[in-house]
Task: structure prediction
Amino acid sequence: MNIYILSVGKNIYSTNRLVQEAKNLGHSIHVINHTQCSVKLGKGKPQLIFEGKNIIDIPDVIIPRIGTSVSKHGAAIVKEFEMNGVYSTASSLGILRAQNKIRTLQIMNQKNIPIPQTVFSINPKNIDEQIELLGGPPVIIKLQEGTQGTGVILAESRKSAKSIMDTFYNMNTSFLVQEFIEESNSEDVRIIVAGDQIIASMKRKGEIDEFRSNLHRGGTGEIAYLTNQEKKMALEASKHLNLPIAGVDIIRSKKGPLLLEVNASPGLQGIEAYTQINVAYYIIKHIEKNVRKRI
Result:
């Protein structure tokens, strides 16, 4: 099978691991920097040019590893492959939805998947009302497209919440406000989904005096043992966003598990290290199961 990974670098841990496992299983695999791809539309069949060659007919499957900063261009490249009949481990629409926290939460709420109480608005004159809708401080303020814990702020007082929100409004920055789940103890759970299976799950714990649990911010991890409800939530979330491969983040509260967000290209380094599960291998096996070689 001919596999393309859309990634900005061959030496990125997750990209490198997928390359290793694909080669071990006998597949041809290439890393394509999607930021260096051009699309030609117009008369005749569309072309997708990389390093001077039209590559649109070459792969049987693509594995998008699209970062937030180039999500629109990356999703457009994925869309061209999709329209040419190439299987993708993340749909172009799913990538865009997952990278917008509000859109993800809107879909989850519509599908009756539990989420934290959330408020968003573009009206800087009703900041007090927004805070009040969540029962007052403390509250969590998040940039709509932040990653790895960046752009996530705990406002412990009404004064600080108003100051942060006012600053974001003046910067014309999209954000949302959520209830603070104190009983989570700075922990959340990352679940890796492949189709209708859970590959691995990890509990992430933030550093002392750090409410964010992200490993990139100094957090630690351990194997997480999921309830049936948590498994169902993760599988349904990835399905509703049309992401065959996804990282689903949940937080455990007194009300039960709540979905925080879904990642269309979850990192593998932390979860492979803490769970000792070969996640990259299972992703390639999922592809083998679901993709037929193009003739």
In short: The chain has nine helices and 16 strands.
